[in-house]
Amino acid sequence: MITAKDNRGQKAVARWIYIGVIMLLIQVILGGITRLTGSGLSITEWQVLTGTFPPLNDASWMVEFDKYKQTPQYQILNADFTLSDFKFIFFWEWFHRFWARMIGVVFLVGFVYLLAKKYLRKDMVYPLLILFLLGALQGAVGWIMVMSGLTGDEVYVKPAKLAIHFVLALVLISYSWWFALQLSVPRHDIIRSKILRTWIWPLFIVLLFQLGYGALMAGHKAASAAPTWPDINGGWVPEGIFSDAKNMVENKVAVHFIHRNLAYLLMLITVIWTFFAFRTSSASRSFRKARIYPMLLIVLQALLGILAVLESPEIVPARWAAFEWLAELHQVVGMLFLLSAVTVFYLSGRTGRNAD
């Protein structure tokens, strides 16, 4: 029998997880700003405790600036940087890392509080353990990614490592969101629809690749490699892009071509899924409210992507302008689309009443 205390505990854990999801979304947004401002390599060391605070005096700032001067990015790309320029990029990388620490604090403090209140049930232990491990893995991959841009003649992090870091972040967010839905959505709101689950799987598979290629686009700065639409530099299939298998992850135009066409495929699957979602009988109130969002968000996502591509020739290094706004909004809407897809997937689960 479920007691009033059990209900309070479950709601408290759900709120804690939802707060974590919001903080993780902000963290990814900060990561996008860090990337777009070229700030990711401004801090050359990982100092778990002492790195919590930025330099507090001029001497400390010069120490950090001298470390940055040893990096290929400074020597090849930013040799004209002043201390003021360095402070700007340092801030965004520091804030990105600081926010990650705050997520850890919220997780730890919340866990201790909920444990002391005896709100954590045994069936919550494994999901929370997985969340902790995913978070730790994400931090490790983030540092490996930064290290990839501090050696040789690299002026940015490796695009493949950026893609892994980004996709892992979204896996963590999606898993957290799913866990929170399990704790907060009443069972009677879940419907059982085979056709919807059949179509949601290809949507997630294509979305996984699309997210990875979105990160490759960002890592290669490939938007400006084909700043036209609907054609790609005057053609539909650029010549020679598949002459080498490595082109699929290393050639800017090939990455751009794949990302753009995955978007079309993803939109088609979303349209088909939405068609069946609106034909579903006996849909719950929650499902009726949620089923339109994937379609709305994928249309907005595509529009922002197109506008970002068309605006990419106007990119000016070290200046935040229209392209940067569009690129960041494109990323934000992409994350919201992912969460909307996870939500409708959960609401059309294996349990619940039959809606086919």
Write a brief caption for the model.
The model has no long low-confidence stretch (mean pLDDT 90). The protein is built from 12 helices and 2 strands; from the N terminus they run ααααααβααααααβ. The radius of gyration is 22 Å and the shape is flat.
Kindly describe this structure.
This protein is an all-alpha fold and 356 residues long. The chain has two domains: 1-184, no CATH class; 187-356, no CATH class. It is 68% helix and 1% strand. The chain contains twelve helices and two strands, in the order ααααααβααααααβ. It has helices at residues 4-36, 58-68, 72-77, 83-116, 125-147, 159-184, 194-220, 247-250, 252-279, 285-290, 293-311, 322-347; strands spanning 191-192, 353-354. It has a two-stranded parallel sheet. The longest helix is centred in the N-terminal third of the chain and has 34 residues, at 83-116. The two termini are 31 Å apart. The model has no long low-confidence stretch (mean pLDDT 90).
